[in-house]
Each structure stands twice: as C-alpha cells, then as structure tokens.
C-alpha cells in the first residue's frame, strides 16, 4: 500500500460525509485501527479538514476506535474554530449593519450567507476574514467606512485576537470580470433572527466555491468536500443557470472539470443532475503531499512570538540533550534557543536578519545566565551552516519550506530533529503531530521530523 494511503482514505471518508452525508461507519471501522494518527492530523491540517474529521470520528461507534488524546486534540481544534466563528459572526452583522445604514451595496461572500446557501454550519464558512462583493464605484466609500470602524485592511489573522477587529476583504470581480454588479442583479435573500439579509445566487456560489485546481497535487480535500456539498444543493433545473453564468465569466470549459475533480478527490460520484450536463474527465485522486514551488524571491518573515506553552512542548518533542547544538532559523527574540540552553543544557545558535530582535535575544540570554552557551548570527537562514546541528527549529512561512527542505537534504546530518509550529513541509510526513490549545481563540499545531 502506498505511503499515507490509509490516512488519505480517512480524510476522503470524512470528506464524503461532509459532502454527501454518506454513512462511512463500516469503512472507517476497518480503517481506524491501522491509521498513523500523527500523519492523519498533519494531512488533515493541510487539506483543511480537521473540524470535519472531528465531527466524523466523535460519534459512536467510531469514537472508541480513536486514541483519546487524538480525539481531545481534535475537540480543542474544533472548539477554537467554533469560537472564532462566533466572534466573526458578530462582526459580520456589525459590518452588514454599517453598510446598510449608509445604503452601500454589498453582498456577503461567506459566513451566515454561505451557511444558508450551502447548508453548512456557520463555523465552516467563516475564514480568517469577512468578505463582501462591492461594486467598483462603491469601493472607496466602503474602504473608508471600514477604516473608520477599526477594521484592518490587510488579512492578518493575529489582528482578530490582538485588535478585536477581523479583516474585511472587498472584492469586485471574478477573474478579469467586474462581478459585483451582476451578482447584485441576481442576488437572493435569507432570513435570520427575524431579519432579511442579501445573499449571492446559488449559481454564483458554485462559481466562487468550486476550487480552481484540477491537479491532484494542489486540490484540498476539504475544499473539494465543501464544493461537493454545494453541488448537491443545486436542483436539477438549476444547473442550466450555473453553466450560463460560468459562460458569462469565461469558465464554461473549466467549471465541469473542476467539479469533476472535486468529486474524484473524494471518490464520490457526481450528482445525477450534474452528470447529465457533461462527461466527467478521468478520476483524479487527491495525493498526500501538495508540493509548493520554490518562491521567486524569499518573502520577508514577520516576527510572531511563539506562545510559551507551544515552545515548551516543541522543546519536549525535540528533547535536546546536554551539549547538543540547537539551531533556530528565524529566532526572533531568541526564546527557543535560551530555553534549550537553560532547561536542557544544550548549546544554541539563533539566526535572524533583524538586529533589533537579536539585541533582545542577547539580553534574554544574559538574564537567563546562558550567555556562554549561546551565539547569535545576523544572516540569511539559507546561508547558515547547519551541518553540526542536532536540533533545528523553524517557524517560517510556507513558501520558505521547499527550499529549506532541499537545504536539509543537502546539509543536515542523519538523525537531526526538526520542530515546527503551525506550518508543514509538504510531502514529508512528520514523526509526531500535536494540537495545543493556548487560549479561547488560539490553537497551535506542532510537528517533529527526524532526518533519515
């Protein structure tokens, strides 16, 4: 059996349950005892399916087949997603009320509106931002209203927690087309709490929520599942409108392939009403690794302090021994290196391009009394010599992971332990995965790899 095949089958089963409400009990009963749960959590995060996986596994008779600590971690993850959705839902209605008060034409593109149209839980339909379609002639006014209300204009998920205002993204087009006016002309409404709100037409939800990729290497099983669930909400006589709108926006040839790829990724047949409109291309199976290409230029990595509980658990997973060399690429204020030296007796090297942060790291080391055990380098992480490192910490943005993995394969010595917070190395299953809840609205996922 190919590597990770069992874990992918687990995710596909959760995806089918999400998309079509199928009963996966029999298949999962045979599958669960053989699953590598560390790989399953890693894949579930990558494929945006952890909440759905939790819903699938928590019910009897499946829950006794799952390790209790895995169910507890999935429950923590799902709880944070739910709480964040509640926080965003409140803001969603505030923004909707703001636009309505100023008679600004805006159509919500997620949240409660999506949940009503797609038949999903609101928690599944709130991302890291609140999105609206706004006509081009209203964009400037909407932008100023949001700034006055304190909403950030950049999509920074940390702002949800630290500043109390989620980013609001204003869209006006679909590809090269100005879509907001056409969306408004065909808009529907939905009722919630005795009030009526605007919403996108079903055919426009299909265009927006069907992933653009048909490549098994880049198609998220979670997004495929949500697209499959939406497809089942379209009545048989509604698909003509869907494909008419697809033609208007230049997607009449790509939309069928995208919908078919979503169903193939789940090993799920097309709905009969949809299948009647086109012949599906050959089945596409979602793969475990969704490789990212090397970036044309390394992006600048912002400093985000790792929560103490997460850092402590990362060190516990890496388990540095006295005298071993711990290397932190992008060390920021040096807390990981200092704690490794202070609590584990390791030697440490922190690498960062920001001299201000390195100054903070030196001060931290002096306060901890480990100055003699640690060193700091102001240099590019890809120029750093890693050949002697026993433990490596990397909290880097996803575009940096493929080139870093190539560097590790060239230079790292066998047995190097690598720990990472939140971000994964595509195509490289970790030895261990853990989900840690660090606050009401915060959850982190950490990983341990070991070089062969």
List its salient traits.
452 residues; alpha/beta; 7-stranded mixed sheet; 3-stranded mixed sheet; 19 helices
The gross shape turns out to be: globular
Mean pLDDT across every amino acid position: 85
Beta-strand percentage range: 5-15%
**C-alpha Rg (nearest Å):** 24 Å
> How many E-type strands?
14
Low confidence ranges: 155-163, 280-287, 289-299
First-last Cα distance: 21 Å
Number of helical segments? 19
- Largest sheet: number of strands, sense, barrel closure: 7 strands, mixed
Helix content: 40-55%
Classify the secondary structure makeup into a structural class: alpha/beta
- As laid out across the biggest beta sheet, the strand order is 10-9-8-11-12-14-13
Description:
The relative contact order is 0.10. The chain starts with a helix and ends with a strand. Helix 11 packs across helix 13 (239-248), helix 12 packs across helix 14 and helix 17 packs parallel to helix 18 (355-368). The longest helix is centred in the N-terminal third of the chain and has 34 residues, at 68-101. It contains 19 helices and 14 strands. The radius of gyration is 24 Å and the shape is globular. The chain has a 7-stranded mixed beta sheet with strand order 10-9-8-11-12-14-13, with helices on both faces. It has helices at 5-20, 25-31, 37-46, 50-57, 68-101, 111-118, 122-125, 139-149, 158-162, 180-185, 202-209, 221-231, 239-248, 254-265, 272-275, 308-318, 335-344, 355-368, 401-411; strands at residues 107-108, 130-133, 168-171, 173-174, 177-178, 188-192, 195-199, 325-329, 347-352, 374-378, 391-394, 417-421, 432-439, 442-450. By secondary structure, it is α/β, with parallel strands linked by helices.
């Amino acid at each position: 059996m190919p590597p990770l095949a069992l874990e992918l089958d687990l995710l596909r089963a959760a995806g089918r349950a999400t998309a079509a409400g199928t009963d996966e009990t029999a298949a999962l009963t045979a599958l669960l005892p053989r699953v590598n749960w560390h790989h399953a959590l890693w894949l579930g995060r990558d494929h945006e399916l952890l909440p759905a996986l939790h819903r699938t596994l928590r019910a009897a008779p499946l829950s006794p087949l799952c390790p209790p600590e895995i169910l507890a971690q999935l429950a923590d993850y799902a709880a944070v997603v739910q709480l964040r959705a509640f926080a965003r839902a409140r803001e969603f209605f505030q923004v909707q009320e703001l636009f309505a008060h100023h008679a600004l034409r805006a159509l919500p593109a997620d949240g409660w509106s999506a949940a009503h149209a797609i038949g999903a839980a609101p928690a599944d339909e709130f991302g890291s931002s609140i999105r609206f379609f706004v006509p081009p002639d209203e964009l400037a006014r909407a932008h100023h209203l949001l700034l006055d209300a304190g909403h950030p204009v950049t999509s920074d998920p940390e702002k949800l927690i630290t500043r109390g205002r989620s980013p609001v993204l204003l869209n006006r087009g679909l590809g090269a087309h100005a879509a907001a006016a056409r969306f408004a002309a065909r808009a529907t409404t939905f009722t919630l709490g005795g009030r009526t709100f605007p919403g996108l037409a079903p055919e426009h939800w299909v265009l927006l929520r069907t992933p653009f990729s048909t490549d098994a290497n880049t198609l998220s099983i979670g997004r495929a599942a949500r697209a499959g669930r939406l497809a089942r909400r379209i009545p048989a006589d509604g698909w003509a409108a869907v494909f008419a709108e697809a033609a208007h926006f230049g997607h009449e040839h790509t939309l069928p392939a995208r919908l078919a790829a979503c169903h193939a990724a789940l090993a799920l047949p097309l709905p009969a009403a949809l299948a009647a409109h086109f012949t599906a291309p050959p089945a596409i199976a979602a793969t475990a690794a969704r490789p990212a290409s090397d970036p044309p230029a390394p992006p600048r990595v912002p400093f985000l302090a790792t929560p103490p509980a997460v850092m402590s658990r990362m060190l516990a997973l890496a388990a540095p021994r006295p005298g071993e060399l711990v290397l932190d690429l992008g060390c920021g204020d040096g807390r990981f290196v200092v704690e490794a030296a202070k609590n584990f007796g390791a030697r440490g090297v922190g690498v960062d391009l920001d001299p201000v942060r390195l100054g903070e790291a030196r001060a931290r080391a002096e306060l901890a009394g480990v100055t003699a055990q640690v060193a700091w380098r102001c240099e590019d992480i890809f120029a750093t010599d890693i050949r002697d490192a026993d433990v490596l910490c990397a909290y880097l943005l996803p575009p940096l992971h493929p080139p870093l993995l190539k560097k590790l394969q060239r230079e790292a010595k066998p047995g190097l332990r690598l720990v990472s917070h939140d971000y994964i190395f595509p195509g490289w299953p970790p030895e261990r995965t853990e989900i840690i809840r660090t606050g009401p609205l915060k959850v982190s996922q950490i990983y341990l790899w070991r070089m062969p």
